[in-house]
Amino acid sequence: MSFERPRIIRPPHEADNYFLPLTAGCSSSQCGFCNYYYGRRLQVRDLEEILAEIDALALFLDQGTVTPGMPETVYAIASQWNRKRLFLQDGDALVYPYSKLVRVLERINEKLPGLERISSFSTTQDLLKRSVDELKALRDLKLELIYLGVESGDDEILEYVSKGVTGRQTVEAGRKVKEAGIELATTVILGLGGQDKSEQHVLGTAKVLSDMDPDSCEALTLTIMPNVPLFEDQQAGRFRDITPMQSLAELRLMIEASNFSNCLFRSEHESNYLTVHGYLPREKERLLGELDYVLSRQDPALLRPEHLRGL
Asked: What value, to the nearest 5°, has the Cα angle with vertex 168 and ends 166 and 169?
């Protein structure tokens, strides 16, 4: 079966990157909330195909030459690229075999020497397989930012959504990234505990985030789509969604209960009902004040409308 180039699923702040697929899908394809990757078989791209794309990209950038047989997507992205940053696809590119990953990064550095930074998603499982020295070697090849999906820090909720890891394992993985000198960006999902386990979810997540001490954290709000187990539980009444105002209350409690040395905390993803953005701990009081203002008024007009929310 030939490799199928994946859709571009990226963090909000990686829009200007070149997107280089190493895999399609995610090695952890059983998360009960994830309509992107749930039940989808992971594809691992052939190394020579990746190296050929890097070579073709460099040739196009240097001389404007189009390589026959190369996907049109390569040139569509490259023609708008600022040549500064590159993102390795897909859901967890660090699952790519380590020795081959090193060769990919070496080729990128050889052919695109002006590149400032390479970034990637990763899972906790992928990071636990790598030593700190291995991660340092990747950092030296410009892999300087890793996005890690924490989602929840509560083990009961992690098991319920089939995340496949515990909160302590996620802390261990995150600490490895930081010890290697790689920037650690995390994501959490408001509402993942539903109404019944809302506080449990938030406090467990705040504990894991505090123990990990990431460089940044992006809060998303749960949006349940069909064809995942959580949707079936929702339809059967076994899972009760939080309300928009309850999502803000969760966001407030998470900010209040977390202890960081210096973390950019934000809720800028389109799934959220309200955007906040600030550094913790120094801007904690301001962020809490912004949330208190909206929570005290309970006015839906202050929130992002449902039709403007996205995944």
From this structure: 65
- 142: CATH: 3.80.30.20
Closest C-alpha to 104, from 176, 1, 95, 91: 95
68 lies in some domain: yes
**Cα separation, 275 vs 7, whole angstroms:** 26
Structural tokens at position 76: 């569509």
pLDDT tens by residue, 248-288: 999 999 999 999 999 999 998 888 899 999 999 999 999 99
Cis-peptide, bond into residue 90, ω within 30° of zero: yes
pTM: 0.93
The residue segments making up the domain with residue 52 are 12-299
pLDDT reported for residue 261: 97
Give just the sign of the alpha carbon dihedral 259, 265, 269, 275: positive
Assess if residue 308 is contained within a domain. no
